[in-house]
Amino acid sequence: MKIPCEKKLVLDRKTRWNSTYLMIHTVLLYKELFPRLRQREPHYRSVPSESDWELDIEICDKLEIFDEATELFSGTKYPTANLYFPNICDIKLAIRDWSTSSCDEVKWMASSMKEKFDKYWSGMHEILAVATILNPRYKMKLVEYYFPLIFGDEAKEEVEKVRAFGYKLLKEYKRPHRSTKNTSLFPSSSQSQSSTTVGKHSRMVGFDTFVNLSITVDHVKTKFEIFLNEPVLPRVDGFDLLT
Question: Percent of the chain beyond pLDDT 70?
Answer without folding.
Answer: 79
